[in-house]
């Protein structure tokens, strides 16, 4: 009999983003976006004793899946594959919730959004689009300054699935092989506010998750090698100068990462982490930056 935990975890992964075999292609289909329009969508009353409440009621909050969320001050930004939020136009793939109603964000984008990140007063959107608010060179990544969209260094030549911010820098991970004309920026790249940079040696497969902790960037995805460093199957750590293994790697792709203090949490389609066969879809790597790290299972059979 198949364990219930295995079924539940698999269904969760499929609902968010189906996991193809290692090296398989992923993508979306761009479409034209409508013009911006204001459209009230009254918030449903909050439950008296906690619980969930929809964001908007007329006719429905959003009409297709949401893949990314980000908070800027008191506002929530949603990104996904929807074409309207709260029943109004101009909210294709991205929309802003002010606590009472949905608002368009510069007319939207012409393809799905898979990642959102906030840097100061700016919102970065990554996905599989070729136009953001009328900018035809905003390929796969765009910056919202609160008033309009801007391209980011000429864009990238493939979908962006993950974003992370460290200080004034923005890291992008995905299925691209060129960032702003930089052919060495393969599957992961760093934007310093003026230009793109590669991260040491190349990865050999797409990136699906990024997490920042201090000066370290943890990277997860469908790759099996990071800059030629051993033990970097599906997950690796970038210290700003070179790649490092994270506990010996995994046996399957990583699609989610989170950092808490000196611990790195990883989720994905794996059964063994760092040689521990009890790690089933989720594990934590414990250790200080620059020191050896050991994976411990979060879910056991």
Give your account of this protein's structure.
The protein has 301 residues and is mainly β. The protein has a domain at 202-301. The chain contains one helix and 20 strands. The protein is globular.
Briefly summarize what is shown:
By secondary structure, the chain is mainly beta. It is 4% helix and 34% strand.
Poorly predicted runs of 5 or more residues: 1-41, 286-301
Elements, N to C (H/E): HEEEEEEEEEEEEEEEEEEEE
Q: What is the number of beta strands?
A: 20
How helix-rich are the residues, as a percent range? under 10%
- Oligomeric nature of the chains: single chain
Radius of gyration: 19 Å
Percentage of residues in strands: 25-35%
Would you tell me the overall average pLDDT?
79
Sheet/helix structural class:
mainly beta
Give the strand order, joined by hyphens, for the main sheet: 1-2-3-4
CA(first)-CA(last) distance: 13 Å
Largest β-sheet summary: 4 strands, antiparallel
Q: Provide a count of the helices.
A: 1
The gross shape turns out to be globular
Reconstruct the topology from this structure:
Elements: H1 4-16, E1 66-72, E2 75-80, E3 94-97, E4 102-104, E5 113-119, E6 122-127, E7 141-144, E8 149-151, E9 160-166, E10 169-174, E11 188-191, E12 196-198, E13 207-213, E14 216-221, E15 235-238, E16 243-245, E17 254-260, E18 263-268, E19 282-286, E20 294-297
Antiparallel strand pairs: 1-2, 2-3, 3-4, 5-6, 6-7, 7-8, 9-10, 10-11, 11-12, 13-14, 14-15, 15-16, 17-18, 18-19, 19-20
């Amino acid at each position: 009999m198949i364990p219930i935990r295995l079924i539940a975890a698999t269904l969760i992964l499929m609902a968010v983003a189906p996991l193809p075999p290692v090296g398989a292609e992923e993508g979306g289909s761009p479409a034209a976006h409508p013009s911006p329009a204001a459209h009230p969508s009254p918030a449903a009353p909050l439950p008296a004793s906690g619980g969930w409440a929809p964001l908007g009621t007329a006719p429905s909050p959003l009409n297709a899946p949401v893949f990314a969320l980000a908070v800027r001050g008191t506002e929530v930004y949603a990104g996904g594959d929807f074409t309207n939020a709260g029943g109004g136009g101009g909210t294709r793939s991205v929309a802003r919730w002010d606590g009472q109603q949905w608002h368009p964000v510069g007319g939207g984008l012409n393809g799905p959004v898979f990642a959102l990140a906030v840097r100061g007063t700016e919102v970065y959107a990554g996905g599989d689009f070729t136009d953001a608010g009328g900018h035809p060179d905003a390929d796969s990544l765009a910056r919202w300054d609160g008033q309009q969209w801007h391209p980011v260094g000429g864009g990238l030549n493939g979908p962006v699935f993950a974003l992370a911010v460290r200080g004034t820098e923005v890291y992008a991970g995905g299925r691209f092989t060129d960032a702003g004309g930089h052919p060495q920026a393969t599957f992961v790249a760093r934007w310093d506010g003026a230009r793109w940079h590669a991260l040491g040696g190349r990865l050999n497969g797409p990136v699906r998750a990024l997490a920042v902790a201090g000066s370290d960037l943890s990277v997860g995805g469908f790759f099996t090698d990071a800059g030629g460093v051993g033990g970097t199957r599906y997950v690796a750590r970038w210290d700003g100068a070179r790649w490092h293994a994270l506990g010996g790697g995994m046996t399957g792709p990583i699609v989610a990462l989170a950092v808490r203090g000196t611990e790195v949490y990883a989720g994905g389609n794996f059964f063994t982490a760092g040689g521990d066969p009890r790690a089933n879809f989720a594990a934590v790597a414990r250790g200080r930056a620059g020191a050896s790290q050991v994976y411990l299972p979060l879910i056991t059979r």
